[in-house]
Design a protein that fits this description.
Length: about 150
């Protein structure tokens, strides 16, 4: 009976202590979550939960509102993400690259069809935040690769 209880406890512990995802995976998931908020045009959430690019959340939101106004004036509806890659650049810093298209409601891409962007991220007490957009130049025709140290 003790053997059975011991094995059951061991099995329970193995099931409940799944390893934490690798830091790169956590950053990639953060970027996928960011794109979901971006596609909802949810500037309040982006400013609060994803960006740390300005002096305040209110200023970040105002900048995002202006950016989305400009995109919508061009017919922008959402972005189609093709690839996301993350690389750790330090203990609490990371780089992420993304390939995507900006699309109108009818699915037609806003020129240029293929786009790429890079991001610098820092891990704060409240989690990962994008601290710079366009951190390193990325060519759309090249595969996403970690920047050289």
């Amino acid at each position: 009976m003790r053997l059975f209880i011991g094995l059951a406890a061991l099995a329970f512990c193995a099931c409940t202590s799944a390893p934490a995802p690798a830091p790169e995976q956590a950053v990639e998931q953060f970027m996928w979550d960011y794109t979901k908020a971006w596609n909802r045009h949810d500037t309040a959430t982006i400013a609060r939960d994803f960006y740390r690019t300005g002096p305040s959340v209110q200023e970040q939101k105002a900048n995002l509102d202006r950016s989305f106004d400009g995109l919508r004036a061009q017919g922008y509806h959402h972005s189609d993400i093709f690839a996301v890659k993350a690389c750790m650049t330090g203990v609490d810093t990371a780089w992420a690259g993304m390939k995507f298209s900006r699309l109108k409601a009818d699915g037609e891409p806003l020129p240029p069809k293929d786009r790429a962007s890079s991001y610098t991220l820092t891990k704060f007490a409240d989690g990962w935040r994008i601290t710079k957009v366009g951190a390193t130049p990325i060519k759309t025709e090249d595969p996403l690769a970690c920047p050289a140290s």
